[in-house]
Write a structure and sequence with these properties.
The protein is of the alpha/beta class. The protein contains eleven helices and 14 strands. It has an eight-stranded mixed β-sheet with strand order 1-2-4-3-5-6-7-13, sandwiched between helices. A six-stranded mixed β-sheet has the order 9-8-10-11-12-14, with helices on both faces. α1 runs antiparallel to α2, α4 (90-102) packs parallel to α5 and α6 (150-164) packs parallel to α7 (179-195). The radius of gyration is 19 Å and the shape is globular. Belongs to the BMP lipoprotein family.
Length: 351
């Protein structure tokens, strides 16, 4: 039985939706440690440096956590978790990684593109430590870059939205207007318009530049979604970390509207159970698989390095079928997937 002391889990159990996602994992001092009683201190020591929102965001960070949890259990390991805050500087991110490396954690997984400069610098200072980074590419011998074809999965989300909208009006909410989230937008819009050119797509970002609050502000997600609903949309896809929880809540309050989740299969997230009847599908990004594969490679003595891309063809991204809400359009989704995989459809990575 693992001994677990997780602040985020406690918050989820005791706080309201908006408060949970903004309060839990919001500072770099929100550290979580867990250990396997069967490890005897000899198992793999896993260091996790989360993006803003941390464990308990019900989306991106939670997916990474699932991969680490699986590895911890399988390899009798232990986990040390540190969580970013929206006000982080480069020095903060560097210190977080350095602290884990100095404490002997190996591998260390940086969850999120914002860690790229810090991973570049700290991996050079600790050449015997294996680093992984999700959603960015760092060229170093001891770094494994775990990336995904988000645009391909988002294309399928766009196909689903175009087939399910009754108003020919859908929306996309992005957390921060950076190149990564632009991939989600690009694929989604292309999927919508390739399916039905008459469908209008509203696009809104919650924060800009180096302001990463758009990934951890459910209130902003809720307001943006409500504005889109008031403007006539009836399907909204949100790629914004825990901010998407607020968007899902807003959609649930609109009769006949659908939300499309992201990163995790949000229909099956306990903290979102009261809204599940409004979650059409989720664009699942299997961060857990990438994180687990990396930890396993280190445990096996054959550390992955370079850029390992998890594509639609490899199951790196997919559309969740939980709830059965897309069963009626599955043949069309399967046809679109086949065309992407065989190269008949080239999905854009920029809007």
């Amino acid at each position: 039985m693992r001994r677990v002391a997780k602040l985020s889990a406690a918050c989820i159990a005791t706080a309201a939706l908006a408060v949970t996602a903004t309060a839990c994992g919001s500072t770099s001092s929100d550290n979580t440690t867990s250990s396997s009683s069967g490890g005897g201190g000899k198992g793999v020591k896993i260091g996790l440096a989360y993006d803003v929102g941390g464990r308990g965001d019900r989306s991106f960070n939670d997916s990474a956590a699932r991969g680490a949890d699986k590895a911890e259990k399988e390899f009798s390991g232990s986990i040390k978790e540190l969580t970013a805050k929206t006000s982080d500087t480069e020095a903060d991110r560097e210190q977080r990684l350095s602290d884990l490396a100095q404490a002997g954690y190996n591998p260390i997984v940086a969850v999120g593109f914002s860690y790229a400069p810090a991973v570049t610098k700290i991996s050079a200072k600790f050449p015997k430590t294996n680093f992984g980074i999700v959603d960015s590419v760092v060229a170093a011998k001891n770094v494994n870059s775990i990336t995904f074809t988000e645009e391909q999965g988002s294309y399928l989300a766009g196909v689903a939205a175009a087939l399910k909208t009754k108003k020919d009006h859908v929306g996309f909410i992005g957390g921060v207007d950076n190149p990564l989230i632009k991939k989600f937008e690009a694929g989604y819009v292309q999927g919508v318009h390739d399916t039905n050119p008459k469908v209008k797509v509203d696009v809104q970002y919650l924060s800009h530049g180096q302001d990463f609050s758009g990934f951890s502000s459910p209130d902003k997600g809720q307001q943006a979604a409500q504005g889109m609903l008031d403007n006539g949309t009836d399907v909204i896809y949100t790629a914004a970390g825990s901010s998407g929880n607020g968007a899902i809540e807003a959609v649930h309050g609109a009769k006949g509207a659908w939300a499309i989740g992201v990163d995790s299969d949000q229909y099956n997230i306990p903290g979102l159970a009261q809204y599940k009847s409004s979650i059409l599908t989720s664009m699942v990004k299997n961060v857990d698989v990438g994180v687990y594969d990396f930890i396993k490679s280190v445990h096996d003595g054959k550390p992955l390095a370079g850029n390992n891309v998890y594509s639609l063809a490899k199951g790196g991204v997919s559309l969740a079928t939980s709830g059965g809400f897309i069963t009626d359009i599955q043949p069309k989704l399967d046809a679109a997937k086949k065309k992407i995989v065989d190269g008949s459809i080239k999905v854009k990575t920029t809007p």
